[in-house]
């Protein structure tokens, strides 16, 4: 029995079963990343439908109802389909290599965490084909609207449940891996920051995702089993959903962005050829952000009605988040200060990520001020704000991370010229899309409406042009990635001159199994 | 011997996770169709459920086989411990959502709806309530139509508290039995724990029947009924899962599994059992007692 069970593969099955049955962290990481890219294309297409409709005032291309389905699904897909799986994919590839572990702690469960995603994504998209279509309530799924929606809403609820199971299992695995699988001598305070930020993120996921599961469960029973959680006639309260949802929703923002902070903290020192400035303060700032993220949720609900004491409490706590975040931005800048800088594509993405995320952070600070938010609430200013946070923070970090680690994964260098083209096209597309939305929002254009007043036309047209540039630029990204997988200049083990860390001590491409025996830590 | 990378057991590629996912998909899709009255729904649910149960037998069976063959070293054991502990933490947060809902309703929503004659003069905004459109609470044992009786704390619920607390003690004594390699003690007290769990569940079921037939208290009885049945219902569901796990562990002890040093499965189930126990204490205080 013992010999049978331990008769293991250095080889692995080929063809489809390799991917279906795999227990290898690198294979699973690859699956996550490709799934994420596929979802990006689906969610991006929905964004293009939205932008195409907003090319002109009036209704031209789609029905208002379908427009609303697009805004709801675009949000859900980008959050749960693109950003979260992409970071879990990066975690899968990198964390075992960065801490000198042979694999993730629980490899079979790791496989399951991934393979829950495709059925969950299918359920999400099936909602489009249900009678009445997908929910038309935004990704926040507020009742009473979502109580009244058709069958599509039930698809989304069950999909959210499955996505949640996947996230919870994935987080458990990441925590167990980080706490239990580090090479001897690699103490917590010696861990690379990407590992640190993921440890904190996994904790956030475990605390927040089950609360979302509770919230959508209450929606489900209100819809089908006669409960009155969100119905005032039965003594319930629709506003309660918003509290429960945002108790999940705000930490979710940090779930999306903390791993991005980790990526920035890996890339910037490498291309500055200097160690990260203020390592310890980075760790403590990460933890402070995580803690604060649980006591700020109602800043999404200033206009819904709350006692003044509540408004003030959530305003001050929200502003406090700027402090640890500011510490991080300061540390990144200080890392670059007097560094021997070079600007390869990953570094460009990291610097742009930090810079643009800071813009998003500052507009967030504006939104945190209760009386000011009364003006900005539910306008395009909010849309601009969170795209500067989530696209510029998370997505740019994901793309940068792919450029940074792809030579290690594939053994080939990507085409630097094309990489720079991709970067600049992305920058132009992104800023052209979202910067004008600040002005639109301040001038009063509401979000999630397929029509708008005439005077908003010009900015909207810039925005639409930008969106198409941004989308097409990502096809270039796909081309670069495929080209790099297929061939190209051979990458050295170290890959980057200034790279530090265990993942750079193994050859490129990294062997199927790395660190079968734990490395020695100085 | 490639599996034991530096002693850490890495499993071979496995078909079970992806098959579980197909089962889960069938279950979820079937459920959506079922609640929307599409005829094929229940069949898909049954199919999905069977797949999931089948895989659980095979997957857990494989894990138990591996465990008994002694290839899990202390580090693997540690991974399982972290895994179970953080899983329970996520479960705590799941219950937290419903307790949060209960507190919000009781502290804010209900008083606000009764504020300053918002609805009509004399509207009674006290807990328990089924809301302005709902039934009227009464303390009468046999409410008439349009009335419901809230669940009293000091009958069955108090007895159930005693039962669950005792089961926490018996499972600990069973653990001591395993530690001393005293199988008789382990079996006896594990069996007692299972009996107490089953007793709790039957009393809970009896309470539900009573609520529906005599107290006029249902899932649809406004926000009181909703919070009452969702909290106790999810708890009861967890006790059911826990009892099944206790039975599996009992059978494994009878089969001679576990050693004084190596019995994580037992401990995982015991942790889980303590978790449902603690949730119940909160339920007893905030759902039954302070109603
Ligand atoms: Cu927030």
Explain what this protein looks like in three dimensions.
The complex is a heterodimer of chains A (522) and B (291). In chain A, helix 3 (25-53) packs parallel to helix 5, helix 9 packs parallel to helix 11 and helix 10 (279-292) packs antiparallel against helix 11. With 522 residues, chain A is an all-alpha fold. Chain A contains 16 helices and no strands. Chain A has helices at 2-6, 16-21, 25-53, 64-99, 107-126, 145-148, 151-180, 193-224, 238-272, 279-292, 308-336, 345-368, 370-376, 380-410, 416-442, 457-486. Chain B has 291 residues and is an all-alpha fold. In chain B, 38% of the residues are buried. Chain B folds into 2 domains: 1-72, Helix Hairpins, CATH 1.10.287; 75-289, Up-down Bundle (Four Helix Bundle (Hemerythrin (Met), subunit A)). The model of chain B is unreliable at 1-5 (pLDDT under 50). Classes of the chains: A mainly alpha (522), B mainly alpha (291). Chains A and B meet through helix 1, helix 2, helix 5, helix 7 and helix 8 of A and strand 1, strand 2, helix 1, helix 2 and helix 3 of B. The structure holds copper (II) ion.
Indicate the CATH architecture of the largest domain in chain B. Answer: Up-down Bundle
Order of SSEs of chain B: EEHHHEEHHHH
CATH topology of the largest domain in chain B: Four Helix Bundle (Hemerythrin (Met), subunit A)
Strand order of the largest sheet of chain B: 1-2
**H/E order of the elements of chain A?**
HHHHHHHHHHHHHHHH
Separation, N- and C-terminal Cα atoms of chain B: 61 Å
Q: What percentage of the residues of chain B does DSSP assign to strands (E)?
A: under 5%
Number of helices of chain A: 16
Structural class call of chain A reads: mainly alpha
Q: Output the structural class of chain B.
A: mainly alpha
Named once each, the bound ligands are: copper (II) ion
The top-level CATH class of the largest domain in chain B is Mainly Alpha
Q: How many domains would you count in the coordinates of chain B? A: 2
Radius of gyration of chain A: 23 Å
